[in-house]
Specification:
The complex is a heterodimer. By secondary structure, chain A is mainly alpha-helical. In chain A, 74% of the residues lie in helices and 1% in strands. Chain A folds into 2 domains: 53 residues; 241 residues, MetI-like (MetI-like fold, Orthogonal Bundle). The chains are: A mainly alpha, B alpha/beta.
């Protein structure tokens, strides 16, 4: 009796083997997780170090000077803001409403399956193909010319499928039992959506939309083909620098031209531009996280 | 028996894709009776209720045949399915507090039906919560969330919600599986009072619950009616079908 009970807690070959496997698995997983952080820190650290001489508030507000070899990035910053907001102003409403239809109304029907297939495939189209489409559809066919409108619409087409997918996921996370409870008391689909589904999925929907901000801000190809330019004369600190029918500068494009097209640029300027782009994206992502935390706290089940 | 039946079902067939769930059910439910439905899992009890208020429409693969009449109206051809659902209160097996305040949980259905006057809504909410034996426990915190109530309270909230659209028929689908025996007994008392105002269909896995409450009991097995008779006959030593005797006495599973 006593020998068996003491045996129960001593290490057996089996338990030692299990412990070894457990430790090994744990270290492998942990190592991979750490490996994720290393490149991020290296990129951020390297960028900051190289960009440091140029980083200042005036770098944000100044316009480029001396054939873009000196000065700031204000026109590109404003242009990116224009492009991002205009494109999301188009794609977010369409995407969210389409996702509500697909998730809440559409039955399992060949036509709806076709729409689903289209959404998934559209999300997989490379951005350069979107660019070419935007060039043909908006610049030429719709006669918007090379302009902010064309570039924004191209970005909107690019972000649309992802917004649809993320919104559908947010909607699907609301338990079906809530919907059934509403239907059982004679509520229509819309009454159900308004009272229960949307209030409980709005955090996920907004997060999905905001994450597309960084994508729209970072893409170069779609805007390069449709409305972003090399250089444009803009007053320092002028927020209303562009008309919608005009072409504009943009951060991603600016970075590309500074790095490859302009001779004799002060070395830290491209890096500072990259830091601004990265900082803007991180700022937006942080907003998304904060918003999510805030709305989660109000989540009601 | 002179009264016309409240619900008439004739040769009701239901299939989910190739799988037949109801195989030709015909029965009448009389006004103001408590109609018990018993039967093992997969016998089609819940599906029967879903056909009744047409929430079966939300199952894409479901095919329904046969006729169901509620108050003489053909359910499958009704013009206003939302009015039909308001006529039938439905309580699901698991309590569902909507992620709204307790007040809004109960006021939701009247609002959907177009009732907007505050005084009317308040009176309605109080009446329904009283009927569901929940009023005393929540009257001081109607603003708090329905999802934060305990399981038994949420189940009574579900019942209050089912009553909030003033149904003529109340369907309870295994309402007691998530709640304790004491609360169950309280709700059973409530049901006995409610039958004065409405017809009650009680689907239950607890055969004794059907025995306590139901006037007539239907024994459903594998989508077919095995026996439908007065409850005292179903639970007697000699029901018409041997299977019934075995089921209610727990002899086969």
């Amino acid at each position: 009796m006593s020998s068996s009970s003491s045996q129960r807690f001593t290490a057996t070959p089996l338990s030692r083997r299990k412990a070894r496997q457990e430790a090994l698995a744990r270290w492998i997983f942990c190592g991979m997780a750490v490996a994720m952080i290393v490149p991020l820190l290296l990129i951020v650290g390297y960028l900051f170090e190289r960009a440091w001489p140029s980083l200042s508030l005036s770098f944000l507000l100044e316009v480029p000077a001396r054939g873009m070899t000196e000065g700031g990035i204000w026109p590109a910053l404003v242009g990116t803001i224009y492009l991002v907001f205009l494109s999301l102003a188009v794609s977010a409403p369409i995407g969210i409403l389409a996702a509500v239809y697909l998730n809440e109304y559409a039955g399992d029907h060949w036509f709806n399956r076709l729409i689903n297939l289209a959404v998934i495939n559209l999300a997989g189209v490379p951005s350069i193909v979107h660019a070419l489409f935007g060039l043909g559809a908006f610049v030429y066919a719709a006669r918007f010319g090379y302009s902010i409108v064309s570039a924004s619409l191209t970005l909107a087409i690019m972000t649309l499928p992802v917004i649809i997918a993320s919104t559908r996921e947010a909607l699907a996370s609301v338990p079906r039992s809530f919907r059934e409870a509403c239907w059982n008391v004679g509520a229509t689909r819309w009454q159900t959506i308004r009272a229960v589904v949307l209030p409980n999925s709005i955090s996920g929907i907004l997060t999905g939309v905001i994450l597309q901000v960084s994508r729209a801000a970072g893409e170069t190809a779609p805007i390069m083909f449709t409305g972003a330019v090399f250089y444009k004369v803009v007053q320092k600190g002028d927020f209303f620098a562009y008309g919608l029918h005009q072409q504009c500068m943009a951060l991603s494009m600016h970075l590309y031209t500074l790095s490859t097209q302009v001779p004799g640029v002060k070395e830290s300027i491209p890096f500072a531009t990259a830091v601004v782009l990265l900082g803007a994206v991180l700022l937006v992502n942080a907003t998304a996280i904060a918003l999510r935390v805030y709305l989660r706290a109000r989540k009601r089940w | 028996m002179a009264e016309p039946p409240c619900i008439e079902i004739r040769d009701l067939r239901l299939a989910y894709g190739p799988k037949e769930v109801l195989r030709g059910i015909s029965l009448d439910v009389l006004p103001n009776e408590i109609f018990g439905v018993i039967g093992p899992a997969q016998s089609g009890k819940t599906s029967l209720l879903r056909c009744l208020n047409r929430t079966i429409d939300f199952v894409p693969t479901a095919r329904v045949q046969g006729t169901i009449r509620v108050d003489g109206d053909e359910v499958r051809r009704t013009k206003d399915v939302f009015a039909l659902r308001r006529k039938i209160g439905m309580v699901a097996p698991l309590p569902v507090g909507l992620p709204l305040s307790i007040y809004d949980n109960v006021a939701f259905a009247p609002r959907c039906a177009g009732l907007t006057r505050k005084a009317d809504l308040e009176a309605m909410v109080e009446q329904c919560l009283r009927q569901a034996a929940l009023w005393e426990e929540v009257k001081d915190r109607l603003d708090s969330l329905g999802t934060r109530l305990s399981g038994g309270q949420q189940q009574r909230l579900t019942i209050a919600r089912a009553l909030s659209h003033q149904p003529e028929i109340l369907c309870l689908d295994e309402f007691s599986i998530a709640i304790d025996p004491v609360t169950t007994m309280r709700i059973e008392e409530v049901l006995k009072e409610l039958r004065a105002h409405m017809t009650i269909i009680l689907v239950t896995n607890l055969t004794q619950q059907a025995r306590r409450l139901a006037d007539r009991t239907l024994f459903l097995w594998n989508g077919e009616i095995v026996e439908l008779d007065r409850t005292d006959v179903i639970f007697s030593e000699q029901p018409a079908n041997r299977k019934t005797y075995e089921y209610v006495n727990g002899i086969f599973g």
